[in-house]
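Figure 2 data, in text form.
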Amino acid sequence: MISTAHSTTLKSLRLSIVAAACSVAMSTPAVGQNNDSVPAPQPALPEINACHVVPTWVTNMPLREQSIRGSELAVDDILVRADETHIEANRFAEFRGNVFFLQGDQRLTTQSASFDQLTNQFTASGGLTYSDGYIAVRAADIAADSLSQSASILDSEYYLIPNAAFGTAGRININASEGERVVSLHDGTFTTCPGDRPAWLIKAAQIDVGEEDNWGVAHHAQFRIFNVPVLYVPRFSFPLNDERKSGFLYPTVRSSARNGAELEVPYYINLAENYDLTFTPRFMSRRGIMANTEIRYLSEQHEVDVTFELLANDNESNNNNSRSFWRVENVSSFNERWSGYIDIAQVSDSAYINDFGSDFFNRADPHLYRRGQVDYNNGATRAQIQFEDFQMLGPYRAPYRTLPRASVWHDQALASNLRLKMFSEFSHFRNPNDADDSATRWHAEPTLSYEVVRPAWDWQADLSYMLTHFEQTEDATRAASVTRYLPQFRWHGRIHLERAFNSGRGLQTLTPQVQYLYVPQQDQTQIGIYDTILMQDDYHSLFRPRRFSGLDRIADAHQVTLGATTSFFDNNAEELLRFSLGQIIYLDESQTQLFDETSRVTASNSEIAAELDFQLSTRWYVSSAMQYDTDISSVRKSRVAVEYRKDEGNLIQLNHRRVRSLVGTDEEVEQVGLIAAWKLSDNWSVASHWYSDLRTNRTMDALVGLQYDNCCWSMQVSAYRRVNRNYDLTFADGPLPAADFDNGISVQFILTGLSNSASGMMNMLQQGIFGYRRPFYLSN
């Protein structure tokens, strides 16, 4: 019988073999396919942009909702539409003209299709398209066998919808005879890059993908860059989703004056579900081959990252020295109260970071800080055991090692406004350059604190008693045993005022504050300096109870601090401006000093400290601070930064800093800097930083870089000038060498999936000695 029909519904119970054949022909091995009785929801097509170009033959395929047109279909029913339908003897079915098959989310369109129930053969010819929401295929012919659960598709192109990957195949074989569909692409290609000449492409004699696998396997494959074969691999695998698997990662190519041409080819090894290893050979034409290894381990309690770098023979060194770097970081959470942290690093020489860079340290760092600690916290009581050490990167005096420091903090309420606070610490110090030089320090500090808090004002009074005992190596300046007893009284109060401004569309707050601090003077000259330095002085430091960090020196104080902060907010509660001003009035001189007389306080008042941060508009910001010495009527320290920020990837910042009379010297530093990162177009970005010393009229650090981003590759070219910190640790007790500068050009080429030029440019800014810092700290 021959009939003209536009729509025919085939019940799966009557023509189950037809359904099976069509199911084999139209199935996909993509991860996440739903084989339950209810079809899985169809994923949306990726957003169409320059990197995700969906073929028109995919977008032109009719959707399920459009195809049903009100028809009621069971889950396993197959809807068939054709200009002509021919069914003979309940064995042979033939469809011609605009043939459309629909089952669940699977759709197939062709011009001619037939099914022979006796031989279980299904064929379609004259061109066909197929999609199930995860994969789309366009091919010339298809032949399927429902008995063997297999199908063959000729001259096809495919599109993986979730990750926008596509390619071609001379033949696609689908085999589901053992219950798991396996797709084999013969003479196939695979890429995620758009265009006729994609940035990278895999061309293989055969590509196999299993339904339960998240990875494809390519046999006799070529890796091509811009359609030029660059690598042949007999067999390798590539991901179909985000699951980790061993294999090569994207290579990096760059060039610099210091190291020459460089090539990095990482190889990732997925050792287990919770730990892996990445091995990265780094070829440097001027220095040799460096081996970099990173091992990561993750469990419910521990997160471990181990990095090791080794250059066996440095060709730039006269002695072909071996150079290395290693680092271990461990974050542990043993339970809800106990935790731990370890961060240890070591370099073979002080010039290593300067020569090879680092993901963990900056070229300007004077040392590597190493520590390990265990912490306990139950709310009212906190405890910590910590070990500290330093590796100096240059001719600097190494600080004492802390082996260990044990600290306990306890806070307990005695009454509604009265609290008892207890701080105690035990520390042992050792001189890394003298095994006979050591010290042990014990400190206890109970504090009674009374606090009153009201909406318009608050104040707090603290009465402390500080007992510190030292056992130390005796020499000309240090006694073998010293005990120090010091009481301390501190009272701090604030008033909170506010008023409306700008006709009620804004709010201004004003917070005056006053502090009284008293600590008696005691001779501490026979105590060594182990972990104590003079703390930075700014507006916030005016209200600190200590001038020195650590416990080797506790400065005597008899002083009153006055200060105030005012802020302006708009009607959206965004802070537009903040201004702070304060000064310490010394009722008595502070006689306690650190190394010399410069750390004493002999004036009647401190410098006036002021800070101003404000937002001119949604894009313009200004941040500034200064310290004004009223005795000599001069600004001793100042900084100002003006920044225009269009968004996170587009900004320009101009800054200036000046410091007179650095600690222990009469030197003055005055520098100006310019930082910029800007996206010129969708593909081009530029970044630059420049710092100049105005006193010597010399550029201290400069870099300019241009980056081109494509969907699948990026290229970064930069020129730099920076201080060459090529110090030798054997000169630790000698004078600082004269500044030497390194000038060079760096070229970096990276193959990627999807790039982000903004983050690449911001990372470039961090490579400088100073790095980029956002200079304002408004509440929003």
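Caption note: The helical segments are 16-26, 56-59, 64-68, 352-356, 757-765.
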